[in-house]
Amino acid sequence: MEKPTSTIPLLSGYGSYFETEAIVGAIPKGQNNPQKCPFGLYAEQLSGSAFTMPREKNLRTWLYRILPSVKHGKVVAAPEEAPFLTEGTNLTPERLRWKPLDYSLFEKSTDFIQGLVTVGTQGDPTSRDGVAVHLYVANSSMENKCFFNSDGDWLIVPQEGGLRVQTELGLLPLHPGHIAVIPRGVKFRVELLDEKARGYICEVYTGHFELPDLGLIGSNGLAAPRDFHYPVAYYEEKEVPFTVIQKYGGQLFRFSLDHSPFDVVGWHGNYAPFIYDLSRFCPVNSVLYDHMDPSIFTVLTCKSSVPGLAVVDFVIFPPRWMTQEHTFRPPYFHRNCMTEYMGLIRGIYDAKAEGFVPGGASLHSMMSAHGPDATTFEKASHMELSPSRIGEESLAFMFETSRVLKLTDWALDPKHLDVHYIECWQSLKKLASLSLNKVD
Ligand SMILES: O=C(O)Cc1cc(O)ccc1O
Ligand SMILES: [Fe+2]
C-alpha cells in the first residue's frame, strides 16, 4: 500500500556516501578544500566521529556554505529557552505510566524547543556516555531560530502532527509513523504542518544510532537500508537576525547570527540526518510457537563497547500476523536487566488492555516486574489461537536501554502520572492449587 509521498526530494540508502548540490558545481571537483571554493562558498567539515575511527565507523561531511559557522555572536547561558529540559536526579524502581503530554502545558505559543520536557537521563554528556528521554509538544514553528545538540544524536518519534524539519543539510518531512535521527551537531529548525505536534525523543550521548546486525536472519528483513532517506542540499540566502540554541553538557546556550545558518549550497559525506517510515519495517517472528524477545523488532541500535549490549535499542511493535500455536501470545511476565521506556504512537498495545494510551508512556526499570495486565492475561489465556492480525492502527515502540534512567521532577509529578497504574496487576489470581501435593 503506497502512501502519498512528500514533494520534498530525498536521497536513499542508510549509511551511504552522498553528494548533493542545490546549484550545480557547488562542490569542488577532486579536492575538499581548494584555495578558492566554487561561487565564493566557504568549505567546512562537520565531524561525527573522531578523525581516527576505523573506516566503517568514520563519519564526516564537507559543507559548502555562504558563510562559515564560526561567524556568530557571543555564547550566553539560556536555561529559559526550554524550562523543562533538565537533568534527571530521582531514582525509583516503581513501574510508572504517564498520561499523554498535555497541550496546555504551555499556555502561550510554544515551539519545538520551548516545548521540550525531559523524562529521565543517565550518564554524562560531557564524558559522552549515556542516554536521555525527552518529550516535545509544540503549537508554533521555530521562526528565525534553530537548535543544535552538542551532546548526542536525537531520535525523534512524532506521535501527533506533521513536521517539516529544516536542517543544514536540507529539508526532511516528518510525520507520525515515521522517525528522524538528527545527529550530534547538525543545526535544525522545526516547522509545524498541523496546528499542534507532540512526540518522543531518545537522545544518545554515546556513539550513534545504527542499523542492527541481522545475524542468522540473513541479508534481508527488519529495516532495509534503502528505506532510510536523507535530505538533498537546500539553501536560503537570508540576511536576518537569527537565534541559535545549543545544548551542551545538558545545559542550554544561545548565540546570534546576522544570517540564516541554512546556507549550505552543496555537501558530500556520510554524516547526515535521516528519516524512516516505520511501516516499511519487515518483522521477523516465531511462526510456530512461543513469544520471541522484542529484540526481533529492533529498528536502530546505539551500541555500547560490550558486544551485544546496546546503550539503547529503538524497538517497534508493528502491525503483524500472530500465528503461534499453544502460546500465550502477548508479551510475557518478566524482569529485565535492561530498562524499558515505552510509548504508543497509535492504537492499542497487546500487553495492556487499557490505560496505555496514544501519546502516553510507561517505564519498567531494571529488574522491575511487569507484563500483561490482568485483563489481557485472562483474555489471552483463553482465546482461540487462530492466526490474528495486529492491525495497521496499532504502533507502539520501546527505548530499551542498558542504563537506568534517573527521572526528572516533572516525570514524578503525580499530575503527569497515571497514579493507578500498578493496580492493573493486582487482580491476578492464584490459579494453581497445589495443596494436595504438599508434604507436611
Ligand atoms: O514489556 C513490554 O511490554 C515490552 C516487551 C515486549 C515483548 O514482546 C517482550 C518483552 C518485553 O519487555
Ligand atoms: Fe518489558
TrEMBL record:
Q: What is this protein called?
A: homogentisate 1,2-dioxygenase
Q: Where is the Homogentisate 1,2-dioxygenase N-terminal domain?
A: 11-278
Question: What Enzyme Commission number(s) does the record list for this chain?
Answer: 1.13.11.5
Which Gene Ontology MF annotations are present?
homogentisate 1,2-dioxygenase activity; metal ion binding
Q: Which organism is it from?
A: Galdieria partita
Gene Ontology cellular component terms for the protein in this record: cytoplasm
The UniProt entry, under InterPro entries, shows: HgmA_C (IPR046451), HgmA_N (IPR046452), Homogentis_dOase (IPR005708), RmlC-like_jellyroll (IPR014710), RmlC_Cupin_sf (IPR011051)
Q: Which cofactor does it need?
A: Fe cation
- Pfam families (alphabetical): HgmA_C, HgmA_N
Listed binding positions for Fe cation are H334, E340, H370
Q: What class of enzyme is it?
A: oxidoreductase
The record's listing under PANTHER family reads: HOMOGENTISATE 1,2-DIOXYGENASE
Which parts of the sequence bind homogentisate? Y349, H370
Q: Which residues form the active site?
A: H291
**So, what pathway does this thing act in?**
Amino-acid degradation; L-phenylalanine degradation; acetoacetate and fumarate from L-phenylalanine: step 4/6
The alphabetical list of record keywords is: Dioxygenase, Iron, Metal-binding, Oxidoreductase, Phenylalanine catabolism, Tyrosine catabolism
What residue stretches are annotated with the Homogentisate 1,2-dioxygenase C-terminal domain?
279-430
Supply one GO BP term.
L-tyrosine catabolic process
Q: Which Gene3D superfamilies match?
A: Jelly Rolls
The text of the family note is: Belongs to the homogentisate dioxygenase family.
